[in-house]
Specification:
The chain has nine helices and nine strands. By secondary structure, it is an alpha/beta fold. The strands form two sheets. Strands 2-1-3-4-7-8-9 form a seven-stranded mixed beta sheet, with helices on both faces. The protein has a two-stranded antiparallel sheet with strand order 5-6. Helix 3 runs parallel beside helix 5. The relative contact order is 0.16.
């Protein structure tokens, strides 16, 4: 059992919190109450950033002390939305939210994952007709191993998990979010994941 704090209680955060609780972990979801995020992060070993990516950097930098020595699992994409509310451009072109977080929080182990799919797939990857893929980006091998274990608890088979390397590689998976609005306009909100066919 791992103590986990989920920052963000929308569809993504709620979905992850429920699945990880069912997997036997001790999960706290931080709402918007003053001090809730700090209290949750302080008590957890792993913190999941499921806040809207546009404001994640500011929110998490404010938790620098609480996040010191912790694993920060970043599942958000920092995008500017178009008129229809779907992602239209990247906030950090030539970089990524994960890189920005790792630079601003040097005592925190940032691992990027689960950001290349619609949110239902995060906790039920077997729902798709083809085997999906999930990617890991981060500097710390032990942190990535801990996150890999969480992914298996969420139903991801070991062979579906691809470690891309350091946090720099997160700019590739974050850029993949630009596929999403076009796929949704073409096919609707049918669950999907961006994967590599081999």
């Amino acid at each position: 059992m791992t103590t986990i704090a989920v920052l963000g209680n929308g569809r993504v955060g709620g979905n992850l919190a429920g699945a990880l609780t069912r997997a036997g972990h001790e999960v706290t979801v931080a709402d918007r109450a003053p001090g809730a995020a700090a209290d949750a992060a302080r008590a957890a070993r792993i913190v999941i950033n499921a806040t809207p990516g546009a404001g994640s950097l500011e929110r998490l930098v404010a938790l620098r002390e609480e996040l010191s020595g912790k694993i920060l699992v970043d599942v958000s994409n920092a995008t500017l939305d178009g008129p229809d509310g779907l992602p239209a451009d990247l906030i950090y072109p030539g970089s990524s939210l994960a890189e920005q977080l790792q630079s601003a929080l040097p005592r925190t182990q940032v691992v990027k994952t689960l950001n290349t799919m619609l949110f239902p797939v995060m906790t039920a990857p077997a729902m798709l007709a083809q085997a999906p893929e999930v990617f890991l980006s981060g500097e710390d091998p032990q942190a990535k191993q801990a996150v890999r274990a969480l992914l298996t608890d969420l139903g991801w088979h070991e062979e579906w998990i691809t470690d891309l390397g350091g946090v720099l590689t997160a700019r590739a998976t974050e850029a993949a979010i630009l596929f999403v609005p076009h796929v949704i306009r073409s096919s609707g909100f049918t669950p999907f994941a961006i994967s590599i066919a081999r």
